[in-house]
Amino acid sequence: VATAARAAPTLRRLVSAGVGQLLDEMAAAVPGLKLAIVDADGVAAHVSGGWPDGALDGLTVAGSPGPSGGDAVRFLDLVPRADRIGWLLAAGEAPAPLLEGLQRSISLLLREVLDKQDLARETLERYREINLLYRATETIGACLNADVVPRLLLAEIERVIPATVAAVVIDQPDAVGLAGAPKATQGWGQGDTRGTAEEVATLLRVAAGLIEQVRLTGRPDISVWSDVAPDSPQSAMCIPIRAGERVLGVVVLGRSDRLKVFTAGDEKLLLGLAGQAGIALERTRLYEQENRRLRLEEELSVARRIQLTLLPSHPPVVPGWSFAATYEAARQVGGDFYDFLDHALEARRMGLVIADVTGKGVPAALMMAYSRAVVRAESMAGRTPLEVLARTNRLIMQERQTRLFLSAFYAEFDLDSGRLTYANAGHDAPLLVEAGGRAIRELDAPGVILGAFHDIGLESREVQLAPGDTVVFYTDGVTEARDPEGRLFGDERLAAAATGAHGSAEAVLESVAAAVTAFTAGGAQADDLTIVVVQRDPDPLARGSSER
Amino acid sequence: MKEAVEPLILVADDEPHIRLLIEQTLEDLADEGVTILTVGDGQTALDTIKARRPNLVVLDAMMPRMNGFDVCQAVKKELGMDDVFVIILTAKGQEYDRQRGEQVGANLYMTKPFDPDELLVRARQVIEAGR
Fold first, then answer.
1. Which strand ranges, in their side-by-side order, compose the sheet holding B8-12?
2. Type and span of the H or E element at A265
3. Is the four-CA dihedral A44, A50, A53, A54 of positive or negative sign?
4. Is residue A363 reached through a cis peptide bond, with omega within 30 degrees of 0 on the bond before it?
5. ipTM entry
6. 3-state secondary structure (DSSP) of residue A255
7. Do B24 and A120 touch (CB under 8 A)?
8. Shortest CA distance from B23: residue in chain A
9. Using CB atoms and an 8 Å cut-off, which of residues 37-56 of chain A contact chain B?
10. A1 touches chain B (CB under 8 A)
11. What b-and-e string marks burial along A355-393, b requiring 16 or more CB atoms within 10 Å of the CB?
12. Residue B93 — pLDDT band, cuts 50, 70, 90?
């Protein structure tokens, strides 16, 4: 027995819980009685009574001679549970039943100390987990950048679950053409040598089956391998990172044989952490989606402003003619535009262009602005409709930065004679409605869209407009408008609406627009919708007559 | 057989399981010879501090018979026991408490659920600084 060293904590706790005092009192009450508690290593936790100095040193076996060469020292086992954790030592005069009673009481108290200790350890473990999850909620849970989540997760894991190597594998649903291709994040942060690139590669290779299984089932699992190579993990634990039932990825840890194999407790803890990561990833994805949506909204509003700024604020006023135009932007803003080119009014000529740029949003709006400027410039140079479109095509082909095209119809009215000269670059043919709605025909001409080919095969055409004749120009947003069942508005409904209205250009425009609105019945408008109507005023003398 | 002056830590919390928890957290220190006392209210805490002058006091903010802030205030401001290191523990998210903890001179402020490992590290630092 040694008295200098420190005795086992359990026995010291027992002594300070009142047993030390009890022994002191008993030793004092029974003359000559000396008591001590020593641990399994023979270190004294407490001594009572007049043990001479050094009396306990070197005591090893029960029945050793007593301190003063008199009474033998009795060793009474303290076995609160399966194992002996020390002895009650007694020397001097004391009835055996008293000592045995004391031995039993101390053993019972010891059992309580041990139980309490177990409970405390268990409680502390649970508390650690709670604290861990709280922390994870604050670090991982507050993260709004999906790329950072794996790193934060590994940092949290590292605090509580020892491993040789770790990796977080997140499935990338957004990766175009690489569906399901995993993005591996090497574990343990920068500058940490646990988990080299080779170790991570080895882990991902040997645990490939485990990872695949966890991905498919969404349930965590542990694999243990025997007889592994020195650089290969002996056990691996794989935990799904889930958002609800969907598996977003996995975290996989490996331990070499220097560490124990993973346990169900490790699994539970990691599942809690991975749960936080799952929530965070899901939230970052929603956050990014929302951001994308807001950016798109902003872009569309820019596009809409560009487009509206460049459209004529009102149709021109020219005696003998009436003009009407409407433009309704789709939610996603296409690239429709129209323009009245009235710079040659003194020469009694008036130009009109209607066009539709492929694509949507800002690129389409910019293309529209560019094309409009080019058409305007070419028109002001006094060129014919065919020349305007052909030169516009050439400029777009030269300048083009984007793969955007446009269809365009250019018309030039001789305001005195009523002669209409036009060319068509792949645009929907306008409808000519003869006075009084008697007949209708398409103003067709060959030609393909601008910006795609050098040779677009344009031809110039002419038609004579009689007083009362109306021309309806439109973009495909009109004919391709859909009703709630998905049917197209189509050419026939357009023709019916155009011929059904009698009166000014404004009346014809309203008739067509109302027919489209009624047809689509409040459904979402898929494309821009542009209608321009030009009417040569009816001859007042001929009104109501069928003469032309 | 008794050591000269053993380092002393006082834990004051009215919740028995938190006392148990902190005691267990500090088990390693106890094994190294640090005495750990636990009490369940503020008044007893203050009396114990006066009598035993612990190296470290872990005070729960909300306790019956004198809360942790008042105990800290008495220790630091009224008794002038600057050498007694005071950690105040409080429920998560009560940020105004932190300010109050600073006002009454607490050395450290931790929120529940506290990190047991951090508490042990801090306690060890305090004990070692006092040795």
1. B35-39, B8-12, B56-60, B85-91, B108-112
2. helix A264-310
3. negative
4. no
5. 0.76
6. strand
7. yes
8. A120
9. 44, 46-47
10. no
11. bbbbbbbbbbbbbbbbbbebbbebbeeebbbbbbbbbbb
12. low
Residue of A nearest to B111 (CA): A131
Which pair of structure tokens corresponds to residue A138?
A: 């604050």
Q: Give the pair of three-digit tokens for residue A83.
A: 């194992």
- Two tokens, residue A510: 């309203």
Q: Could you tell me if A404 and A365 are in contact, meaning their C-beta atoms sit under 8 angstroms apart?
A: no
| pLDDT at residue B101 is higher than 70 | yes
Identify residue B73 by its one-letter amino acid code.
Q
Residues of B in contact with A123 (CB under 8 A): 17, 20-21, 24
Chain-centre distance for alpha carbon B123: 9
Cβ–Cβ under 8 Å, residues A52 and A67? yes
pLDDT digits (tens, 9 = 90+) for A320-371: 999 999 998 776 677 889 999 998 888 899 999 999 998 877 888 888 888 9
Per DSSP, what are the bridge partners of residue B24? none
Location of structure tokens 């293309």: A367
A213/A218 Cα distance (integer angstroms):
8
Listing DSSP states for A174-233 in one string gives T-TT-TT-EEEEESS-TT--SS-HHHHHHHHHHTHHHHHHHHHH---EEEE-SS--TTS-
Report whether pLDDT(A281) > 90.
no
Q: Give the full edge-to-edge strand order of the sheet including A235-243.
A: A182-186, A165-171, A246-255, A235-243, A221-224
Q: Is B105 left (phi over 0), alpha (psi -120 to 50) or beta?
A: left
pTM > 0.90: yes or no = no
Amino acid in position B48:
T
